[in-house]
Design a protein that fits this description.
The structure is a homodimer.
Chain A lengths: L11 H20 L3 E2 L5 E3 L1 H7 L1 H4 L4 E3 L5 E4 L4 H9 L8 E10 L11 E10 L4 H20 L3 E7 H10 L5 H9 L6 H12 L2 H10 L6 H10 L8 H17 L3 E4 L13 E7 L8 E5 L3 H6 L5 E7 H10 L11 E4 L7 H13 L4 E3 L6 H10 L2 E6 L2 H5 L2 E6 L5 E5 L3 H9 L3
């Protein structure tokens, strides 16, 4: 029996660490006042056609249901979340929602890209403000910090509205084409990229200067001085330049991690309307860890009502590569647990009672489920990560006691049943 | 834009309580020494054909991938979990695994049955013992107890091996047909069911006695005395009767909830080979809340190696109906949270710093994201469930302080920035 290609079985050793991503995302989202939602894994394919056209649709797991309607495994969260939002007219805004779901894409599997993946998503609906923009970025940074990647990543911010105006001022005839070219920048040789920009803009000199700017990290102050130094390029753009600069300043005050402005971040999807951002490994390895931005136009495509929105999406695959690289993909030391042995021919119901006692203390407890020798049981206990084994045979029961064996030191002691709880609480406390 | 039929959008108010099911299942599973796994949502359809034949396959969301292979959204966990187990020869046994995933079935939607649902699954692989059987049942009971259903449910236990022998001793020519008939018992009028059993057994007298027994709750002692009173029916069954009785006794010692033997519990799936059990609402409402049993034959179907197994599955749908009925479907009182207001024209970066301070204390904190009036912000804060609002305008900043408004009492006080942390820790402590 084989697995479908591009899908993963996740065994406990990898699952426990993945759970850390879920847990920290939950904690951080709640600290920021976000509430969790959940949604169908199947939607009508048209939902994605409306948002992204046919390109994304090519990469979906889609099929026809028994009524011959085209449905698909969801490739992303945003259309569904916006559908849920527009279905509820009663929700006071701002709405702060997050989710952590599985998604599917029919792409060629590669490192950091499987056909099935988990993705964290968070959105703020309602306000169109730099405070909302920076809140989403700060939440993203907080999650990365919390899972152990502090100072290991860099957030790169840009603004689609600002870039649109800049490219228009520079004389690009087809701005959408320019965005597509910039989106491919890192995949092209430098001279080929310059040629492409030149042919789109019609001026070699401006192209050279623009290409030098793209990808160059800038502070908020750098952006302001660039804009005041090149007044013809930034004409009529004071507000959007200031909003972009202020957003980055707001984010840097909340967290010490690095955040820069990078004019090459445009994010291919044409639906972004304001701030856009991605997070990268500080060493420059891997694809982006997370990405997001403002998309004020999507709700009106679905429902006719315009609802400003800003959001972030973060998949588990690149995150896992990052965590492995920086040593955060390691199980935390778990709380000490206990193994209840079953001496051959002993009265099992007593053992079930002891196990219940241990578990009622919040201490994880395995019981032996076979009729092996005691030494085989000790071996199983140690291998399973238990710190103590409890033995309750006839000799112990006569004394209303149990023997407790420290599996590390091998030391054994007799503990009366009525002081078992006290003993275990002390023995398993974090040292 | 519409949702696909039989699928649900889960908004925060329902999600927060659903999270309680996830959380308690996690906690209980770990207390019992189980480790979490995760697996693909898509498998080759043949995996289910091998286990269950074509009946289940009719009810799957299946389709052909681009290579024309039949794949399906997973309808249940067991085949995948066994596939994962047999792929790893290195795992020491017993293996204790659990998971909480989404599953899909193409059935007509009804109360307690959607086309997409979450299901908890736990299995023990390796030992074929009554200790393993009872461990799975006690874990199931502990989860139900932990989510607030203590004394609200009843576990009904039977044993397929015992029933097989009993039905053979009674003279049933086609025992599989008898199982199918018993599985439908509650859906048929009493006399029609009796007719069906009579026609299968060929004896009206034995049928009447058997039908009286089916569905009658019995203790372990009841089962033992039945077996010793009807020696011809229970001939050669001493071991299996005793194992069934002992399993029930073991489970009752671990938890005070009710557990009975019920000979009508046979669970349709023919792959069960020993103990079987289901949990029901104590009032008898709803379909079963959870169900499971021993299935020692499945691994050898997949891999040729025989691996004894016992497991349980519990969907979220009937559980939700139960929790609503008994008032456990209510959000717990959440920790007090804080709202950072934004007085018009104030310096926003100071506010981001205050929000970071609050969140660093582990206190959930929303910041205002608009430029509304302060009174509108207070209203939003109270509506969002915040206990306190922090205001830091020019007047406060001059005094290196903030104003803190208790949103319930309306009382305001000035707190110096250097004692803000102390104030918040005390104010948000559980009272």
């Amino acid at each position: 029996m084989e697995r479908v290609r591009g899908f993963r079985d996740i065994y406990p050793e990898d699952m426990e660490i993945r759970e850390k991503i879920f847990r920290e995302s939950d904690t951080c989202s709640r600290l920021f006042g976000f509430r969790k939602i959940d949604f169908p894994s199947v939607e009508f394919l048209d939902l994605y056609r409306m948002k992204s056209g046919d390109e994304l649709v090519q990469q979906t797991f889609s099929f026809r249901d028994r009524n011959q309607r085209e449905i698909t495994l969801i490739p992303e969260a945003t259309p569904t979340v916006v559908r849920m939002l527009t279905a509820r007219k009663d929700l006071p805004r701002p709405v702060r929602w997050y989710s952590f779901q599985k998604f599917w894409r029919y792409e060629e599997p590669q490192a950091g890209r499987m056909r099935e993946f988990y993705q964290y998503n968070a959105d703020i609906f309602g306000p169109d403000s730099m405070e909302a923009d920076s809140e989403i970025i700060m939440l993203s940074m907080r999650i990365l910090d919390s899972i152990g990647l502090k100072k290991r990543y860099q957030i790169r911010v840009n603004n689609r509205e600002m870039m649109q105006a800049l490219l228009e001022n520079l004389g690009f005839r087809d701005v959408q084409k320019a965005f597509q070219a910039i989106d491919r920048m890192r995949k092209l040789p430098a001279d080929q990229f310059l040629d492409e920009i030149s042919s789109l803009i019609g001026s070699r000199k401006d192209s050279t200067e623009l290409v030098e700017l793209l990808g160059k990290p800038m502070t908020a102050a750098d952006l302001r001085s660039l804009a005041s130094g090149r007044k013809e390029w930034f004409s009529g753009m004071d507000d959007v330049v200031e909003r972009t600069a202020r957003t980055v300043e707001l984010c840097s005050s909340g967290s010490p991690s690095e955040i820069v402005i990078d004019l090459s971040i445009v994010r291919g999807l044409s639906y972004y309307t304001g701030i856009v951002f991605e997070a990268f490994d500080a060493d420059g390895e891997f694809r982006s860890i997370l990405g997001g931005g403002r998309y004020n136009g999507l709700a009106s495509t679905f429902s006719g009502e315009s609802i400003p929105a800003v959001g972030v999406g973060m998949g588990d695959a690149v995150l896992e590569l990052m965590m492995r690289k920086y040593g955060c993909w390691k199980t935390d030391i778990t709380k000490k647990s206990v193994y209840v042995c079953r001496p051959p021919n002993s009265d099992t119901s007593v053992l079930a009672g002891i196990a219940a006692t241990v578990r009622n203390l919040g201490i994880a407890c395995m019981t032996d489920l076979s009729s092996r020798s005691l030494s085989a049981q000790f071996k199983d206990a140690a291998r399973s990560g238990c710190a103590y084994a409890i033995i309750c045979g006839d000799a112990e029961r006569e004394k209303e006691s149990v023997t407790i064996k420290n599996l590390e030191s091998g030391k054994q002691e007799l503990v009366r049943l009525d002081s078992l709880e006290k003993f275990l609480v002390e023995a398993t406390a974090d040292s």
